[in-house]
């Protein structure tokens, strides 16, 4: 479970990027995080993961405060950033072993998980190559593999399907569903509203740093007395005019 309590983030000389955000992401659910460009999605995710400091309020992950107890909090989540261009001078296997070392994954367990995940994502043949030689989609796959390697309870995914081929995208969506069905938490941002509508149990919509809606699609239709698609409701909610 992820709990954001009155979270605020200011950037000097600008309006509040995140303004008193309260949001609870429960266990056993896939929650989609939606908003137009500049709405505060990535800023929120970077505060949840401890990349950005919180100016006010608090964030806990399964009871661990990301600021006061960061090591314990970071042990229980996996994070896929919106750009997979990281650790480019490492070979694929070097990167995965680096992740395995950080999380103290036993060697035999690590070998089995690496073999299984990389075969599923069809990158097992490229583990001896440098990540900088990978295509965008392959970089996304190696990052996702690294995230899943320590089997975290909480998945935090920022545009995780970008660059994936249809087969890999389908596989990741199936894995997200299975992870949530086991009672774990999946929180992901996406611009693909059809994917969110198809996959998510609940959606959170943010604009200008403020939460506009959180709930199921059915609750959204009841709230706005509309039978419109998620795309149509989203466009109406985030219309600045």
From TrEMBL:
Q: Does the keyword Cell membrane apply?
A: no
Q: Which GO terms describe its molecular function?
A: ATP binding
- Keyword Isomerase part of the UniProt annotation: no
What PROSITE patterns does the record tag this protein with? ABC_TRANSPORTER_2
Highest taxon listed in the record's lineage? Bacteria
Q: Which Pfam families does the UniProt entry name for this protein?
A: ABC_tran
Annotated keywords = ATP-binding, Nucleotide-binding, Transport
Q: Which InterPro entries match?
A: AAA+_ATPase, ABC_transporter-like_ATP-bd, ABC_Transporter_VariousFunc, P-loop_NTPase
Q: Which PANTHER family match?
A: ABC TRANSPORTER ATP-BINDING PROTEIN ALBC-RELATED (PTHR42939)
Protein's name in the database? ABC transporter ATP-binding protein
The record lists the organism as: Ornithinibacillus salinisoli
The lineage, from the top, is: Bacteria, Bacillati, Bacillota, Bacilli, Bacillales
